[in-house]
């Protein structure tokens, strides 16, 4: 699964770069430009312990975003988030335990574009996010910081496609399960394989050429 994700992402980036070399150049970004867009992301992890227990974790993320250019190459913005998590564990006794969690949150981001050729850009995006589960009992909450690389290609004056890799991620979660039981989990990782997303952007106030 990891190989397929890396291979598909490489194909996407190479295709964007190839198309940019044979297409017509469009107007560059300008201070004051605004856009709306969205990303669809997924992450899957499988693990097996020495005691023969196995676990599978799947996360799906829907994330619309609103961006504003504070300069010709720099953007600030917000993005609401909806997250779906599925977790399955198979114990050493072959007992299956699964759970589903749905959460929502908000993210604040800054993005810096780096022009490569006409219409094609690399970018770096620092982001801070906060999420809270819709569950009433445990009310898990999480806070995250990330630094993600990516690439964008402008397919027309008003439309752009992009691909984002997971990058450097700090994640802290808090869970209260009642009966005075509380859990904290903090993670710090570099993930360019299992967490990536593709998205599309529409420029609101940029004129057609």
Automatic annotation (TrEMBL):
<feature type="signal peptide">
    <location>
        <begin position="1"/>
        <end position="27"/>
    </location>
</feature>
<dbReference type="InterPro" id="IPR011250">
    <property type="entry name" value="OMP/PagP_B-barrel"/>
</dbReference>
<protein>
    <recommendedName>
        <fullName>Outer membrane protein beta-barrel domain-containing protein</fullName>
    </recommendedName>
</protein>
<feature type="domain" description="Outer membrane protein beta-barrel">
    <location>
        <begin position="14"/>
        <end position="188"/>
    </location>
</feature>
<dbReference type="InterPro" id="IPR027385">
    <property type="entry name" value="Beta-barrel_OMP"/>
</dbReference>
<keyword id="KW-0732">Signal</keyword>
<dbReference type="Pfam" id="PF13505">
    <property type="entry name" value="OMP_b-brl"/>
</dbReference>
